[in-house]
Amino acid sequence: MKRRTVITVGPLLALFGMSAVSHKLLATDAPLKPLDSSQPTAKALSYVDDIADADPAVYDQSSGARCDNCLHYRDTGQSRGGCAIFPGFSVAPQGWCKGWVKKS
Ligand code: SF4
C-alpha cells in the first residue's frame, strides 16, 4: 500500500472501527425494560405507549409519526423495540415522543 493510500484510507478505517465499537456498546443483549411514560425523560418528551393517547397539544394525529417509523427505533424482533434516546428501555411500535425523527 502506497503512503498516500495509507494517509487517505487510514482515518476512514479508524472511523469504521470506532463506529463498530460504539455500535457494539449500544447493542447490548441485556433485556430492555418497558419505558414508563412517567419516567422523567419520557415525561419531558411526552412519550406515550400508544399515539391514540398522545396529547393533541403536542402530537398531530394526522402526522403518522410513531416509534416504528422513527430514525431512533431499533427492531428487536420482539413486540417492543429499542430506542437510541432511551437506552436500556423498550418502546412500543405504536408509541411516540417529541424526539421522533422521520426514518429515511
Ligand atoms: S425517539 Fe422515536 S423511537 Fe424513541 S420513543 Fe421517541 S418516537 Fe419512539
From TrEMBL:
Keywords: 4Fe-4S, Electron transport, Iron, Iron-sulfur, Metal-binding, Signal, Transport. Residues 1-27 form the signal peptide. Homodimer. InterPro entries: High_potential_FeS_prot, HIPIP_sf. This is High-potential iron-sulfur protein. Belongs to the high-potential iron-sulfur protein (HiPIP) family. Specific class of high-redox-potential 4Fe-4S ferredoxins. Functions in anaerobic electron transport in most purple and in some other photosynthetic bacteria and in at least one genus (Paracoccus) of halophilic, denitrifying bacteria. Residues 29-104 form the High potential iron-sulfur proteins family profile domain. It comes from the Bacteria. It comes from Pseudomaricurvus hydrocarbonicus. GO terms for molecular function: 4 iron, 4 sulfur cluster binding; electron transfer activity; metal ion binding. GO terms for biological process: aerobic electron transport chain. The lineage of its organism: Bacteria, Pseudomonadati, Pseudomonadota, Gammaproteobacteria, Cellvibrionales.
